[in-house]
Design goal:
Elements: E1 5-11, H1 14-23, E2 27-29, E3 37-41, E4 46-52, H2 53-56, E5 74-78, H3 82-94, E6 98-99, E7 104-105, E8 109-115, E9 121-127, H4 129-133
Parallel strand pairs: 1-4, 5-9
Antiparallel strand pairs: 2-3, 3-4, 6-8, 7-8, 8-9
């Protein structure tokens, strides 16, 4: 079995977060989705568990970061093309997300970032396969 990653993110309004990510074209695994959590399917091996804050608190003794004022993590998604970077970032903005940083265009690497409704920062980036390979 391949290694899978489950990023756990606290959210204030689960329905709003689900609608946001559906607006980006993502789906949710109903087996791990209920009133406390939604399992965002990013790929066959990458998932984000969107957990309402009271439920999230059960997994940590620390305070939950307010992602609208602090950065606890940046989730980066590598995609297959510059066009896909723009497509996802544009959908995020159209679905209620906010731009997080300026576009990063270095020729061999291209990326844009956005904040989801809870302020979590997501980067979408493409790297030229020729540069990565050699």
């Amino acid at each position: 079995m391949s290694t899978k990653i489950f990023v756990n993110l606290p959210v204030k309004d689960l329905a709003k977060s689900v609608a946001f990510f559906k607006g980006l074209g993502y789906s949710f695994n109903p087996q791990f989705t209920d009133e406390n959590a939604a399992c965002l399917v990013i790929s066959d091996d990458i998932f984000a568990m969107l957990l309402v804050e009271p439920f999230f608190r059960r997994f940590t003794k620390k305070e939950i970061a307010d992602a609208t004022t602090t950065t606890e993590a940046i989730v980066a998604l590598g995609v297959e093309s510059r066009e896909r970077v723009d497509e996802l970032a544009d959908k995020a903005l159209a679905s209620g997300g906010q731009a997080a940083n300026e576009t990063n265009d270095q020729g061999f690497m291209y990326g844009r970032s956005f904040q989801d409704p809870d302020g979590h920062i997501w980067e979408v980036l493409w790297m030229d396969p020729k540069t990565v390979e050699g």
